Amino acid sequence: MDKTLVILAAGIGSRYGVGIKQLEGFGPNNELIIDYSIHDAIKAGFNKVVYIIRNEIFEDFEEVIGRRNEKVFRALGVKWEYVMQTPGEMPEGRKKPWGTGQAVLCCKDVLDGPFCVINADDYYGPEAFVQASGYLETMKEPDRYGLVGYILKNTLSDNGGVTRGICSVDNGVLVGIDETKNIEKTPEGARSGDKVIDVESTVSMNFWMYPAEFVKVLEEGFPVFKQKMTDPLKDEYLLPIIVDELLKEGKCKVDVLTSDDHWFGVTYAEDKATVTEEFRRLYKEGRYSADLYSDIIKN
Known about the structure:
CATH architecture: Alpha-Beta Complex
CATH superfamily: Spore Coat Polysaccharide Biosynthesis Protein SpsA, Chain A
Strand content: 25-35%
Number of strands: 13
Shape: globular
Mean pLDDT: 89
Number of helices: 8
Helix content: 25-40%
Oligomer: single chain
Distance between the termini: 22 Å
Low-confidence stretches: 12-19
CATH topology: Spore Coat Polysaccharide Biosynthesis Protein SpsA, Chain A
């Protein structure tokens, strides 16, 4: 059975400004953040990659990363799929996709076993993929999921507010998750509006592990979401909110894995300099080779 990595790359990225942030180069050879996630995942034992993208960026995506990685995938025996996040029926005036839950739902025809979900524009670190790979091998219950958690203070941007899923965790098990928007750094720590946020909080960066049965949960829940939504132009069917509702209803359990690796990502165009410098540091430390996949292909 395949061990699948699903990459969420269909978001509009409205705060990033000009360009498609999923296709921005950050490494010494113009590598994308996606490249490092794929490298680390394959090295950890994943053998299938699913890209979730939008129709309008398919040609650019295939040109920048798809064709280049196909050579690597063939050399390593890795399968790959493109899935388009098609919006389906949309209310008049809505421009946003339906969100990460609906994006994963679009993959229902290419997922036949346990899988991981990550964002295209987040760097998670190799250890996270090692833990996730091992966790997928232990999955036997259709209602038990996994999440790689990070510390809030290590995930904030110097250039503006971010959205994070603030996690309540008890003995390594997720109790609840609060999707919190516009969390900003402050001299004292962090806040969202008037609410002070503990910078030591565990947060979700959308690194999930799910059994194949989760797709059925999404399929059943999406029509219910659309019936209950209060703002048809902005409401989104989001993985953290979906999981939180399932937890409240006692319909799932979620194990929270922690990684010592340093997360970083790009929300704003101004984040690019910081991310580029972080990759320079990783190369200097010997984490990656100039020819990114050489360490895997040689082995």
